[in-house]
Amino acid sequence: MKAALFITCFNDTLFPQVGIATTHLLERLGHTVEFPETQTCCGQMHYNTGYQQEAIPLVRHFVAGFRDAEVVVAPSASCVGMVRDLYPKAAILSGDAQLIAEVDALAPRVYELGEFLVKRAGVVDVGAYFPHRVTYHATCHSLRVLRVGDIPMQLLRAVKGIDLVELPHVAECCGFGGTFAVKNADLSTAMLGDKARDVLDTGAEVLCAADSSCLMHIGGGLHRLRAGVRTMHLAEVLASVEEG
Q1: d(CA 185, CA 206)
Q2: pLDDT digits (tens, 9 = 90+) for 33-53
Q3: How far apart are CA 59 and CA 183, in angstroms?
Q4: What is the pLDDT of residues 165-191, one digit of tens each?
Q5: Which domains does the chain have, with CATH numbers?
Q6: Global pTM?
């Protein structure tokens, strides 16, 4: 299958290794990965902070870049949530019948990595090997917008050598929420403290999630605590293989 990689601006700028891991994983499973170089921000930051009209040109740009893709795969539940949940609303706001039709045609073909693997490709065991104690944080967009359910845990349970432990209060927000962490810093920090405590209670070496934004937030808190817990995107864990 030909999969167009939607890297997202957050990963492209701050966590490029996530895009590399996603590409290696998909190619290892026999997919051809294409990278439309015209892609840029999906517009989520604009739309969620009240600049809906300003987000519409970014919606048009995304559609133009990916309209011919068989499927679009992104290592970000947050950005996929923007495309599938909010692009139709932005298109209606534009009043452009053609944009509405193109968004309606494209949005169902845009997948978060985990749901693509399980729902579209029909794969749970991706051949990964990761001999570490791992816990998984269910990000708000993956849980509440995309409703991926236990798909990430299915994929992680199939990883050879892994010691997977359930995170207490897994459904609770980490406190990032994009600009929420800036505008409501005290509340965000309190929520982060609760999440960090839950991570430490698992005794995990690695915290895994499907969104680099949440991992950045939680990872920063763990680093300040000198907790010794690494953060890794789901793609990085699934791309790991036994050496030799």
Answers
A1: 25
A2: 999 999 999 999 899 889 999
A3: 25
A4: 999 999 899 888 877 777 878 888 999
A5: 2-120 (no CATH), 133-239 (3.40.50)
A6: 0.93
CA 209 – CA 215 distance, rounded (Å): 7
CB-CB contact of 77 with 84 (8 Å): no
CA angle 133, 136, 138 (to 5 degrees): 175
Tokens standing for residue 45: 């930051």
Show the DSSP H helices in the chain as ranges: 9-14, 16-28, 44-48, 52-66, 77-81, 87-94, 97-106, 113-115, 140, 151-157, 180-183, 185-202, 212-224, 234-239
Residue 92 structure tokens: 């209606």
Within 10 A of 89 (CB to CB), how many other CB atoms are there? 13
The first and second tokens of residue 79, run together, are 């950005």
Read off the pLDDT of each residue in 93-107 and give the average, rounded to a whole number.
98
169-199 burial code (b ≥16 CB/10 A, e <16): eeebbbbbbeebbeeeeeebeebbeebbebb
**Letter for the amino acid at 234?**
L
Question: In angstroms, rounded to a whole number, what is the distance separating the alpha carbons of residues 162 and 158?
Answer: 8
Strands 110-112 and 163-165 come out as unpaired
Half-sphere exposure of 144 (CA within 13 A, CB side): 7
Query: Residue 5: beta bridge partners?
Result: 73
Q: For residue 160, give the DSSP letter.
A: B
